[in-house]
Amino acid sequence: MSDSRFPAGFLWGGALAANQCEGAYREGGKGLATVDMLPHGPHRMPVKLGLEKRYTLRGDEFYPSHDAIDFYHRYREDIALMAEMGFTVFRTSIAWSRIYPKGDETAPNQAGIDFYRDLFLECRKYGIEPLVTLSHFDVPMHLVIEYGSWRDRRMVTFFTRYARTCFEAFNGLVKYWLTFNEINILLHSPFSGAGLVFEAGENPEQIKYQAAHHELVASALATKIAHEVNPGNQVGCMLAGGNFYPYTCKPEDVWAALEKDRENLFFIDVQARGAYPAYAARVFREKGVSIVMEEGDAAILRRHSVDFVSFSYYASRCAAADMDEHNTSAANVVKSLKNPHIAASEWGWGIDPLGLRITMNMMYDRYQKPLFLVENGLGARDEINENGEIIDDYRIGYLREHISALADAIEDGVPVMGYIMWGCIDLVSASTGEMSKRYGLVYVDRDDNGKGTLARSRKKSFYWYKKVIVSNGGDLA
């Protein structure tokens, strides 16, 4: 076994999200959620962006989340596969509408609590630590229709009630929590990120940043509740990470990159530092935004900052003063110029392991709190060869290089809690709704149209990652 650059007790694992894996979208008393309204095909992006109102399901469209990979019924099989790889942590999310089907009830749905209790007990059986996200791109549709989702202050009450229910119901089974997944995506994909739909004549920036304020207050209050329920609970925020590089050394491009970084880091600045950053005042003024705050909000944010900062990292980004819809990539909702110095995935996402190290150093310099990389992976098309094998060396190469960059960041002095690769089992792509954009170490027999047996099979990367974990990152060969 090679010497490891990772500390003892470092957490290794993989991640799934309820909205991309569970399926069973109306079973067990579950209510409809925003993700259930996202179709596969040309209407997906307009709905995600809040530009096309979709409050009812259509009979002529396919909705990938409705069945997904049927984790709801197959979780025991899937967790056994995770245990075989040696996972010490499994990141998943709770579907809010399984616990509160409409979102504004005063009593939870016991069937939903029972499902997640069984799921977490199954993790514990194998010594796997659950890391649980409370809101991972799903809001009960009733809250969208009745209240306009996070634009309404009452959402803070509904969310904190839901959070308390989870903290109390799963006390002793879950100690690592995240409040909102990739909270900054609210700015880029408002409906899928926060259930926001815009009406004619509205200032979308006002709606988005007011919703963001409500989420930030709700996150701080949830952190407070988690610590009250069990002082051993650790609560983190979650950023869609990846620095913006200036496209050139032209000062205007450098400034554009700084502004883009601030746009994404704004939420974490509040959650980790406990106050709105100084630069926000000018941003709001120039966007015509006036945040309505209640008395006590500033104190809530100040007193209940997060315990750690978690983030996803897939790619770095490039910014320039003259970037617009004509010269930026359509590959991701976070727009970027194409970086000519790095390779890209089939879906146009830049592959930049050093960018991970850069991002981590920047974030620790900024926040001085432990970091947790909770999503990192490569979406690719996998082919089954004549021997029934999936030789995904491209994925192994991507993971190897990023884990090595993570080790470099640790040597730089950055404290890191763990590494969680995204999509440990193939699941529905959040961006495109495809199954063919595969991230997993385990292959799932399902195609983009929902056809297939759902049978699971191990890829070459499955065995490679098992070796990485048993060596605590010492053997990346």
TrEMBL record:
InterPro entries listed in its UniProt record: GH, GH_1_N_CS, Glyco_hydro_1, Glyco_hydro_1_AS
One Gene Ontology CC term in the entry: cytosol
GO terms, biological process: carbohydrate catabolic process
Active-site residues, as the UniProt record annotates them: E375 (nucleophile)
Keyword terms of this UniProt record: Glycosidase, Hydrolase
PROSITE patterns: GLYCOSYL_HYDROL_F1_1, GLYCOSYL_HYDROL_F1_2
A Pfam family annotated for this UniProt entry: Glyco_hydro_1
GO molecular function: beta-glucosidase activity
Family the entry assigns: Belongs to the glycosyl hydrolase 1 family.
Record protein name field: 6-phospho-beta-glucosidase
Species: Sodalis ligni
